[in-house]
Write a structure and sequence with these properties.
This protein has helices at about 5, 20-45, 45-55, 60-70. By secondary structure, it is mostly helical. The protein has one domain (about 5-70).
């Protein structure tokens, strides 16, 4: 066994397992922050805080579905 076999590759972290894990952690963190912000808006403004952010995402979801359908 050499030193090259025991050291992690550049750009990777021995504890997280590499770039894919870091990307997954960033995505999960982003989703959790967005859900927390949505929860704060519901707490602050009540029912409008629940449905207005959902209505605001309709155009994005429509474009996403069209993009998926086109292939």
């Amino acid at each position: 066994m050499t030193l090259a076999d025991t050291t992690p590759a550049p750009g990777t972290n021995a504890h997280t397992g590499g770039d894919e894990t870091n990307l997954a952690m960033k995505i999960i963190f982003t989703v959790l922050v967005l859900l927390a912000a949505w929860g704060v808006s519901i707490y602050t403004w009540g029912v409008p805080g629940l449905y207005i952010p959902a209505l605001a995402t309709v155009p994005f979801m429509y474009l996403l579905l069209v993009t998926i359908a086109k292939g």
